[in-house]
Fold this protein.
Amino acid sequence: MGAVRNPIDRYRHSKGDSPLSPANVWHPGLDEEIKALPAEKLADGYPDGYRSAQAWKAALHLWNDSLGAAHEIVEDMDTPTGAALHGIVHRRRGDYFNAKDWLRIAGDHPAYHGLQARAAAYLARREAPSGPLRTVFEQIATQGNWNPYLFANAVEIHESRVGDDGSEEFLERLQRLELEAFMKYLEGRIALERAPVYMAE
């Protein structure tokens, strides 16, 4: 069986960082393309390929700000990756209690290992905003491992406040790095036509 092309490749440079709590799907047509991806072909004999393919499709829906479509997939998954993505769905819906519960179930996911280095590198090149999340950004920049609970708490604090002190840009970029880490992790476990190049910094 041949490898499958990643449908978001042609949109990577036209889409900015996603909102923390999206009100709408970014590209409805892309959503249909993602739904049509054949999980069996993506699995293509890979160990745990089918579940990785389903999780990858959920991650693509998250990239497209399609929380409902992502949730339809992950709510029936019983893997650490499914639990982590489930937590991200709930966080982006503003359901922080359930988000943290799913993140607890996911545990120390392998996708977090490279994510922490990229998040720290991003924050090291920028002056953190002086608002209430400044200390949180400093913690993220210096922690040894990615802490999804700390990030969920930061998003919750930001989304509960009126106005923006400059934190939103930082949180949205960290969210993008987080999702890219999961996509990269999953793309090594399925049959894709080519490996994507991630450019977010």
